[in-house]
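quick one: phosphoenolpyruvate bound model?
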Amino acid sequence: MNEIVLKGVPAAPGIACGEAFILDKQEFIVPPRAIMEQEVPIEIARFEEALNKTREEIQSIQKKISAEISEQHAKIFDAHLLVLEDSVLIEEVIKRIKKEKLSAEYIFSKVLKRYVKLFSNIEDQYLRERSSDLNDIGRRILKNLMEESRLHEFENLTEEMIVIAHDLSPSDTVSMYNKNIIAFATDIGGPTSHTAIMAKSLGVPAVVGLKDATLRISNQDYIIVDGRMGLIIIHPTEETRTIYRNEQNRIKVLKDRFDDIKDFPAETMDGKRVSILANLELPEEIPIVKKYGAVGIGLYRTEYFYMNRVDLPSEEEQFQAYKHVAQMISPFPVTVRTLDLGGDKFISSLQIPRDMYPFLGWRAIRFCLARPDIFKTQLRAILRASIHGNLKLMYPMISGAGELRKANAILEEVKNELREEKIPFDENMPVGMMIEVPSAALTADLLAKETAFFSIGTNDLIQYTLAVDRVSEQTAHLYEPGHPAILRLIKSVIDAGHKENISVGLCGEMSSEPVLALILLGLNLDEFSMSPQSILQIKKMIRSVSFKDAQELAHKVLGLSMGQEVQEIGTARLRELAPHVFTAGDKK
Ligand code: PEP
Ligand code: MG
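yep, here:
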């Protein structure tokens, strides 16, 4: 078989070689999975459960619509409920599972396809339009069936595998933790999609945005994932395998070289000290955070705590989780970010209508301000945990002072409630905000007067400033952290923060790229927060340069017109200043 190279978007560094495991979620392309005779009742039960779950979902949507819009509108979903009661369809699926001994999702997808086709060929317009109802409800059922079987599939992975999927939901990536998954690759996704972020936090190489990897790779194909270059090599020749094996060893040697600085501060050669903290998605990552010598958590993405479950976490559960993280990281600080739902992170326990443009829609602080019940529960839990360590609180997606004040007012209400109930909390817990919306960056001078600290979220700031979807593979090449507009915004936010004597950090992926981190150092950033795996490399870089050199570089690149020039000039300068900080395959 010939070697085939696929090019995608680099998402998480490293190299992995192994067998492919295809997780195909494109709703209608469900791979057949043979089952044994004794599994037949299990598959039928799974199918029936998926029907029940779908019915509950639709009924709760109906309830919401009827309360918020009208009963008339809610009736639209009656047609969907009818499909769930259609005994002909249900019987056919059950009969075929018994006869063909194939998985429920496979049989259902086949039956559904046939029905949709039948309906769409009918002359009567009314009935023809029913095919789209059928399609809709079918996808929903399939989703419920597939999600379950996916979790199931990860559990059963006994060999090390490379997961290939059309897309991975946040709950997929969370459930990959501690499983035998050595890398993953997806058809869709951009450089700072949650998939890429999770790959980094899982410490596995990943490539996203491959467009049709799920169609070109088959189960058990031997493949190589090159996470730095964004390549997948299918059926590599013996020569390619040897090259990559050597490269893997070289990366390991280069990485080990950084270990000796774990307990040293991030201080430049001329005495400028900054802090390097870790981004945390799951408490399970705490040992890694410690291993790499982070001096705290600069961003605790709490939304992952809400995933992979059918209900919302209670105040007590959240309290226990935040307390645990606070205690484990103490005396270092933990910056807990309040729920940043939306964009590419959805929670199955909340039936939220999808916006046409989710990143511009009802997300993060907007959602929390509209749902104070959910917001307050989280705030209470964070406040209660604040006496068990060094906690800070941070709001995501603030677009201006109005939202900041509203969030603070709710926080104040919660504090009053706790005071009345005589429940202790840290009265002095710092409350900061993320700067990830251009309007916030442009008004940072005003916001700095009303907040304890800034944390720049470049993953979003870049997408909103450059109008480039952060999860799209089509526009990934336009997603430029070094774009002059971004550097100028960052500089003005840092300067505005410092003018009001507040600390300014950055917790987007940008802080873990050595060249960009050098520029950020020169722009006088105080805190760098990143996936734990990147910490030592960035610390090595900081300890190898002088602040003066970094400032000169920052000054120089601020005058350039294009992101590409910034990258080129920055790389050339870092190569002069500290050639040893590059690992194999770092962006050239
Ligand atoms: C960001 O936007 O830069 C950020 C750190 O938040 P998230 O990636 O979770 O949106
Ligand atoms: Mg963000």
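The longest strand covers residues 15-23.
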